[in-house]
Write the structure tokens for this entry.
Amino acid sequence: MFVNRAPRFEVLDEDGLTTLDRGSDRLAAEIGVQFDHPRALQLFRQAGQTVEDNVVRFEPGFLRAKSALAPPEFSLRARNRARDLVIGGDHMIFGAVNGPPFVRVDGVRRDGTLADFEKLLKLVQVSDVLDTPGRNVLEPNDVPLDVRHLVRALAATRLTDRVWAGEPSSEEAARDCIEIAAIVHGGRAAIEQDPVLFANVNVNSPLHFDVRMLDGLLTYAEAGQAIIVTPFLLMGAMAPVSAPAALAQQMTEALAGIALVQLVRERTPCVLGSFLSTTDMKSGSPAFGGPESAFGLYASGQIARRIGLPWRSGGGTLTASQVVDFQAGYEAFNTLLAAFLAGANVCWQSAGWLEGGLVTSFEKFAADCEILDLLQAQFTPVKVDEESLAYDAHVEVGHGGHFFGTAHTLARFRDCFWRPTIASTENNERWLRNGSMDHAARAALRWKAMLDSYQQPPLDDAVEQELVEFVERRAAELGDAVDVR
């Protein structure tokens, strides 16, 4: 888990922040937020807010006051306690891509399968720079939809020993994921006391929470598990084309969800989500990695710190590119660098995202891990002391020499500089002899080497048996038999 102690890059002055606060309050009070769930409406009504049909209009200050009940920092317990996560403050955690239905591997784009999903979980497990596989690093389309959450949760538990994210899109699926976590971690009371799961709840922007996501939000809130409330804002489509307008909308939507969580169960850990990018106004397609996205991240960090909440950055290593090329690299790097500079606490979508989030790429997974490793090294403070000044090396070399053979160099050359695992420093002749491979081809070799190094983490036999029996029973109840033994 990385700790980012670098100064934050802040782009808004006090007047700008105050104007955004006013804009968010006006949206909340005059336009309101739609909640397609009777319990959510009842909770807000009981809290004294105005409810008309399924729209809630909020008194100024209400959303911030309720959101302030969420802890500014919290921990999540992993199966391997060395993998426990701290969310908030200077801590940053990184998750793999989540959500794509398609996979690109060895130059072929196709539907994702359970075998692909399991390989990607193994890659997360062997990575030193990723902290969580999240919920669905890839959709296993060969598994029936109604039992997919069971198969994913069991695979994440078996193949990794890390914190994973539960399915938020129905009450039934959320309850199943909570039960699987409870089996592993000592029961429902234990995980309510010491949370172990994330749930990422997306807002159906603009200003709308649909019933499926609310089912998940309410269920995870009852269990005291960590909830990320993430508006999905592509400017020009789900938000106005003005970045300040989108930021005010993001604040209203995220705080409305977090306030609802606190009405269900005070002190439930929450993360203010951000996913703010642009739309290509010629084609209507999503665009990623541009200056507006970076500005949105910088500003989101300031807003979250002002409110006092941990926050999730809108990426990750996002790109609209169809293949692992220069566009994919610079869009991914620009988005991820902005998250570091803005002090994000949770970086979802940090490895494997391709084609606007439709595709999980094995090659880009490996390439993104290298970018992430580079930035973690880049944002690690350099110790400046007498030893680091290497005065004795100057005495040894004198004037006009070189430092290759000095005692200082020989003692440090193996680890004195960051070393890439994919990028090439070969001269042209050696590069030609080695097959003239581009970055994507080398990344293909890298992910396969990572996979070869995988070792399955141990899981107690009795726990595994209970998990298998639960998953098989629930799958049968849902109408689909699965073989997970």
